[in-house]
Amino acid sequence: MELYEKYPLSISNSLSGKKEKFEPLNPPFVGMYSCGPTVYNEVHLGNLRTFTVFDVVFRYLTHVGYNVRYARNITDAGHLTNDAGEGVDRIEERARLEQLEPMEIVQKYTFSFHEVCRIFNILPPTIEPTATGHIVEQIEMVKKIIENGYAYEVNGSIYFDVNKFTEKYKYGELSGRNIEELMEGTRALDRQDEKRNPIDFAIWKAVSPNHIQRWPSPWGEGIPGWHLECSVMGTKYLGKQFDIHGGGMDLKFPHHECEIAQSVGAYGITPVRYWMHSNMLTVNGEKMSKSKGNSFLPRELFNGTHPLLTKAYSPMAVRFFMLQSHYSSTLDFSNEALSAAEKGYRKLMNALDTLNEFKYPGKGKLNENLNTELNKLVAACYQTMSDDFNTAKTLAVLFEMTSRINDFKSGNHSLDSIEETTYNAFKSTFIGFIQEVMGLQEDNVQDSDLLDGIIQMLIGIRKKAREDKNFALSDKIRDDLKAMGVQLKDGKDGTIDYEIE
Amino acid sequence: MELYEKYPLSISNSLSGKKEKFEPLNPPFVGMYSCGPTVYNEVHLGNLRTFTVFDVVFRYLTHVGYNVRYARNITDAGHLTNDAGEGVDRIEERARLEQLEPMEIVQKYTFSFHEVCRIFNILPPTIEPTATGHIVEQIEMVKKIIENGYAYEVNGSIYFDVNKFTEKYKYGELSGRNIEELMEGTRALDRQDEKRNPIDFAIWKAVSPNHIQRWPSPWGEGIPGWHLECSVMGTKYLGKQFDIHGGGMDLKFPHHECEIAQSVGAYGITPVRYWMHSNMLTVNGEKMSKSKGNSFLPRELFNGTHPLLTKAYSPMAVRFFMLQSHYSSTLDFSNEALSAAEKGYRKLMNALDTLNEFKYPGKGKLNENLNTELNKLVAACYQTMSDDFNTAKTLAVLFEMTSRINDFKSGNHSLDSIEETTYNAFKSTFIGFIQEVMGLQEDNVQDSDLLDGIIQMLIGIRKKAREDKNFALSDKIRDDLKAMGVQLKDGKDGTIDYEIE
């Protein structure tokens, strides 16, 4: 029996607005897609939360026995709205600003994104498709939508015909908007506007020859519309219908709504069974935004350079902090919350070290209450995570387990008072949830500084020992260090230096 | 005056077979392309040498003031020869073997390749284009070659017509082969063979519907020929003619020869001004090959698991080892050579640490010979590297500089006996060449183990001190560690544990 059968999973489906039992189309296989970054600048902390949320979803699905194909895209073309909400090409704009070829911008920020993922222990997805890598497929999908009558051409651009679509299908279901409201909320069309209707959206956009990124198509040179790539790549790698689609809440409308319309317009079938949306990150209670100066880059956290930070925080403390709230809640970022997270993270990791050193001593007198409690804690880890990936509650269970670990350590309880099967399940669950599911690991960033500090301290102790004629100690320090590959060297003016072999 | 003007660069051009003065088309801009991996398995040590060689070329060109656009591709489709030399699709074959979607194979091995690059400090190129990312452009180039009369269609595949090409242009110039020899060296055509001539090569290949990777084209569904992507991406990002193209010697024929033919066939202009080829890696004097069991993966080096290794070697020792020979020479890999490289690397890094601690004390009595010698060494670094990137000779100069650094350290010479400008040039050149040009950095891989060892040792010293009633020492150890964030904790059975905050 697989773990996913023992602890059935439920997911809050944004499409239905309800928590539903998760039933993949073709178990044990699960197809999952989440929206990745547009690689035109550094990802900020809000993006990072989204990537962390779906990293944990991917990790947990895998942990309970599903075979997950997880596609997370890189948008490297066609993102036609800049941060100010204007209709310009993000990558093209940035390329002109930095005086680089668009693909140099793409390479620079893809590399930086991957570095951030590595530092925060966000696993690589199983496929990481790019928009530029699927131009042919995007053109094919546009053709299909035109064939089906849900798109029209104007001056080499192709627009999705929302009114036509709503004659047969629903539009706005995911975001809970109806078409009349949407029409009212949209400004009237300019005379220049090519669209039949303000809520229509481009699926292929003609560009002028001085636009650097552009591709030939049956409608002339252009670029794919931003919403199109996700529909295309989801279909290509996960099928016309697949299990889970995730993304930040801000993508629900229009991006995800348009994805649904495109897929239905092309294939007549709703593409995704479970839509998941992660909530926003606020800073000291306010929405994060560049203009307010409260927008953080991940790097600013662990070097502590942002004016709103009182100190630096390690990547793992930040990861822990993010997991402390459920993905569907807003998460407020403050120095107090981060400092608390740092302590919590350290506490868990120390318990992990302690547990790793335990060995089951053989069975003694059984403490039945304790034995039962530990088994319940093991089950609770799975129950809380299987309840819509509630990392907040799961961490609370892991802290309960930490208290029990410390009881064993201090001698309050003895390991031989529990069953060996209990011991093994408890140990592997605690370790598995921290490392595999939560993705927490040792922060090693400052090891080399600390190492230098401690070696310098030993050099000082040795100097004092020699002054005190305690040669046994001074020799021991020199010899032990040497055995570990650290060679002490006498400098000319009595200073002592060291080399690590 | 830029450094590249002060120390003009020469390159052994594989196309002319001569060492030539390097004159970029449009200085200070340099366009450089090198062939990256086919991401269907782990890169081996031979590949790593090639990537390291062109990393150093990229680094040095940048260091001397050129503005380099460096494209290194990822082959993620269309590589139609497996390791046994048979005409099968490498990625497709691997996908069937591992039971994954081809793009999962691509993701897995691209990630692994990037990890290896990070560990060996190989910089990311400025653009890292993929074959699947340029299907449209490849189809366009095929059309162009057909239009010009140098390719023909058979059953949905397009072949380059070498005979037709040689009516107007040369074929075989780079590899020094003539067309008659090539014809003789090729087996006769099968009856089934679609090609007009055995030396013709596919630039677009029709595939059956059960081939997973395939794209629509004017000639039906198919995949691009392997040689085509490099021509297409070189042209797209660097222009119809660009400065430098690098790759392993094994790619000279047919891959690079075909690249030239394709570009000339499409645009009538030879694509590359300076072709550079890095030589092979041998193991104990023999060619590396999987069947001989002497093929190494980078990872096997630093965990020491390969049966031919007597110990583990750090990534930086391996990098140093590779730089010890000129890129155009074969490089023989043995335990002896690696152990020697390890010592050499350590010696350089120690000199770097020493130099970093020096401060210029103000001018004293000038030692004119020494002052002149140091300035010559600075120039020699540039002269040796500008002479066809001779890392071997440059390292020899850096070792000369190391001796001078140690002279200053031991007091053989005094820093105040050289001019301040000399001091500054010497220091910045030594540091710049080691870190920026050679890309050598501290190996930190075992810091955490060493750290644990040393803390345990301190705990032992403290225990002994307490037994000896040397409370001054035992308290000092506890307090100093605490100040550095290491908290000692008493365990129940007299053991002492620690936590790093």
Task: Furnish the topology, listing elements before pairings.
The structure is a homodimer of 501-residue chains.
Chain A lengths: L2 H4 L3 E4 L4 E4 L7 E6 L10 H19 L3 E6 L17 H9 L3 H18 L15 H13 L3 E4 L2 E4 L1 H7 L10 H7 L15 E6 L15 E3 L1 H13 L3 E7 L3 H16 L4 E7 L2 E3 L2 E2 L10 H6 L11 H9 L7 E3 L1 H23 L10 H19 L4 H20 L9 H18 L9 H21 L3 H13 L2 E5 L5 E5 L1
Parallel strand pairs in A: 3-4, 3-9, 9-10, 11-13
Antiparallel strand pairs in A: 1-2, 5-6, 6-7, 7-8, 11-12, 14-15
Structural class of chain A: alpha/beta
- C-alpha geometry of chain A: globular
What's the number of domains of chain A?
Answer: 3
Number of strands of chain A: 15
N-to-C CA distance of chain A: 51 Å
Seen as an oligomer or otherwise, the chain set is homodimer
Strand content of chain A: 5-15%
Sheet having the most strands of chain A: 4 strands, parallel
Gist of the model:
With 501 residues, chain A is of the alpha/beta class.
Can you tag this structure with a few keywords?
homodimer, 501 residues, alpha/beta, Rossmann fold, Isoleucyl-tRNA Synthetase, Domain 1, four-stranded parallel β-sheet, 17 helices, globular
What does this structure look like?
By secondary structure, chain A is of the alpha/beta class. Chain A has three domains: 270 residues, HUPs (Rossmann fold); 133 residues, Isoleucyl-tRNA Synthetase, Domain 1 (Orthogonal Bundle); 53 residues, no CATH class. Chain A contains 17 helices and 15 strands. In chain A, the strands form five sheets. Chain A has a four-stranded parallel β-sheet with strand order 4-3-9-10, sandwiched between helices. In chain A, a hairpin with a 5-residue loop joins strand 14 and strand 15. In chain A, helix 5 packs across helix 8 and helix 13 packs parallel to helix 15. The radius of gyration of chain A is 28 Å and the shape is globular. The model of chain A has no long low-confidence stretch (mean pLDDT 91). At the A-B interface, helix 4, helix 5, helix 16, helix 17 and strand 15 of A face helix 4, helix 5, helix 12, helix 16 and helix 17 of B.
